Amino acid sequence: MALITKAPRGTQDFVPAESAKMRYIEDTLMHIGELHGFGEIRTPTFEHTELFVRSVGDTTDVVQKEMYTFEDKKGRSITLKPEGTAGAVRAALERGLLAEALPVKLSYITPCFRYEKAQAGRYREFHQFGVELFGAKSSAADAEVIGLADLALRTLGVESIKLFINSIGCPNCRPKFQQALKDYFGAHYDELCPTCQERLERNPLRILDCKEERCHELAEHAPIVLDYLCDECRDHFEELKKRLEAMGIAYEVDPTIVRGLDYYTKTVFEFKTETIGAQGTVCGGGRYDGLIELMGGQSQPAVGFGMGLERIKLVMEACGAPLPEEPRCDVCLVPLGTEASVRCSVLAESLREAGFVAETDLMERSLKAQLKYANKIGARYTMVIGDSELAAGAARLKNMDTGEEQEVPFAELEEALLRREADRLYDEIVDAQLDGE
């Protein structure tokens, strides 16, 4: 029988084994955020379209080509969020968070949606870990969020990652740079793609981020933003470099980084890898000091980043970083008969309350089929319970890895499993120590 439909292009399912890996990544990232004082915020999956047009920028590829936008039943324009920062800023303003003690530190994990060409590492629905720090203008804030990302990647065991940094200036010095870009690209107007020809007058900085081959080639020889920084932006960038060096975080200055969103100012950065091909940026962010005022709040400096979870998972798998398996069943209770099935259900619930993964038969299988199922799900222990075991109030607990069996009263099953789990963990630690010698 054919499927009615398949998952939409650019989306993916996470079956239990894959979900276990994603949850591990999410939990690790949120924990690193907590260590830095970032509290979790959750914002809607969709927002009013105007939020993204104003914040992300109407000349960006995200707004022009990639947003999932539709009208609701009352004709209001709604967009599935293409990134996390705009929603976090909107929520901070609406809920009065910026009136509290500064800096305000927020972290989140959210789904994002962009209509892009689907390929490995790039999806139309993806998930993003992000942090936003509001209220601090010092380069110390930039260094802290970069340090958070660096620690998170190292904790996850991600290898072959490089940090690239740049400064794209501020409203005071950027106009001179934009004019230099207009002059340069204007001399090559006929060679630009139609989209970049439109960008030339409105926002020439966007041309530097174009993926069209000829535009990319021209951008490689374009004026460099670092040559146009004002004293304040230059000092800020130099201070950031000193802080990163003091923190032992290796970096490389890349003057071509501009990021794909209009709200960035001063610091921009990316963590990149070559282990997953062309889609090698696993984390990107920077400073966006004008965004809060643009969205109706009082002027506040801000800095943050977004990190793609699917790409992190791909990199971890590519470099052999440790990822958890689907939780293994601790004990499979095997009933023989209706009365035994009732007792096994009671025992299973008691074990689950104690924190064990417990299974019992729901399919009315034979003894042989039940044991085969226990093997298939990787149960550590099995316990067969029939009439004689019910009468004795005890059964044999079998270690499925070693074949060892031991008579265990039902009332002592939890304690017996705890002892065996402690012994197993101890043996694993000893083996690991021996392997390291």
What would you note in describing this structure?
The chain has 437 residues and is α+β, with helices and mostly antiparallel strands. The chain has 15 helices and 16 strands. Helix 1 (16-35) packs antiparallel against helix 5 (139-155), helix 1 crosses helix 11 (309-319) and helix 5 packs parallel to helix 9 (231-246). The N and C termini lie far apart (56 Å).
Q: Unreliable runs, pLDDT <50, ≥5 residues? A: none
Overall spatial form: elongated
Strand order in space, largest sheet: 1-5-6-11-10-9-7-8
Question: What is the number of strand segments?
Answer: 16
Query: Proportion of β residues?
Result: 15-25%
Category from helices, strands and their pairing: alpha+beta
Arithmetic mean of pLDDT: 92
Largest sheet: 8 strands, mixed
Radius of gyration: 28 Å
Distance, first to last CA:
56 Å
DSSP summary: helix tally: 15
Share of residues in helices: 40-55%
Quaternary state of this entry equals: single chain
In short:
41% of the residues lie in helices and 20% in strands.
How is the topology of this model organized?
Elements: H1 16-35, E1 39-40, E2 46-48, H2 49-56, H3 61-66, E3 69-71, E4 77-80, H4 85-94, E5 104-113, E6 125-134, H5 139-155, E7 161-167, H6 174-186, H7 194-202, H8 213-219, H9 231-246, E8 252-253, E9 265-273, E10 281-287, H10 291-294, E11 302-308, H11 309-319, E12 331-335, H12 338-353, E13 358-360, H13 367-376, E14 381-385, H14 387-392, E15 394-399, E16 405-409, H15 413-436
Parallel strand pairs: 1-5, 7-8, 12-13, 12-14
Antiparallel strand pairs: 2-4, 3-4, 5-6, 6-11, 7-9, 9-10, 10-11, 14-15, 15-16
